[in-house]
Amino acid sequence: MSLFNIFTVAGSAMTAQSQRLNVVASNLANADSAVSSNGQPYKAKQVVFVSTPFTQDADPGSTASGTHGVRVSKIIENQSPMKLLHEPAHPLANEEGYVTMPNVNVVEEMVDMISASRSYQNNVDMMNTAKTLLLKTLSIGQ
C-alpha cells in the first residue's frame, strides 16, 4: 500500500461522512413535520456504508484485497413505527384524534451527528498528519 493511498482512503471516508451528516440534518429538520413533500408522514432515513476496493492496488493475479475505502451504497428508510400524537384539533388528525408524526428519534439523530462529525474530523486529522510526515520526509534530503 502506497503512502499516498492514505489520502484516497481518508477522502472517501470524508465524502461518506458528509453524506451521513446531510441525512441526519434532513431527519432533524423533519422531526416535527406532520407531512413530507409527498403528502405522507416523513420517514427517518439512514445511510448504509460499503467497503470499496481501489483496484489500482491489486495485482491482476493476486487474491489479496488491497486498499479499501468506504462509500454510501444506499439510503434506506427507517422501518420503525410512526409516532401517534393525540391532538384532535389538528387539521391532519384522523377520526380518533391522532396525528401521525415522523419516526425520527431526535436523541439518536444527535448522537449520529456527533459520531459522523467526529469521524469526519478524524479523517481530516489523519490527512494532515500524513501531509506533515511527507513534508518532513522531503526535508530530510535538504
TrEMBL record:
Coiled coil: none annotated. It is found in: Bacterial flagellum basal body. Residues 9-32 form the Flagellar basal body rod protein N-terminal domain. Residues 96-139 form the Flagellar basal-body/hook protein C-terminal domain. GO terms for cellular component: bacterial-type flagellum basal body, rod. One of its GO terms (biological process) is bacterial-type flagellum-dependent swarming motility. It comes from the Bacteria. Keywords: Bacterial flagellum, Cell projection, Cilium, Flagellum. Pfam families: Flg_bb_rod, Flg_bbr_C. InterPro entries: Flag_bb_rod_N, Flagellar_basal_body_rod_CS, Flg_bb/hook_C_dom, FlgC. Belongs to the flagella basal body rod proteins family. NCBIfam families: FlgC (TIGR01395). The basal body constitutes a major portion of the flagellar organelle and consists of four rings (L,P,S, and M) mounted on a central rod. The rod consists of about 26 subunits of FlgG in the distal portion, and FlgB, FlgC and FlgF are thought to build up the proximal portion of the rod with about 6 subunits each. This is Flagellar basal-body rod protein FlgC.
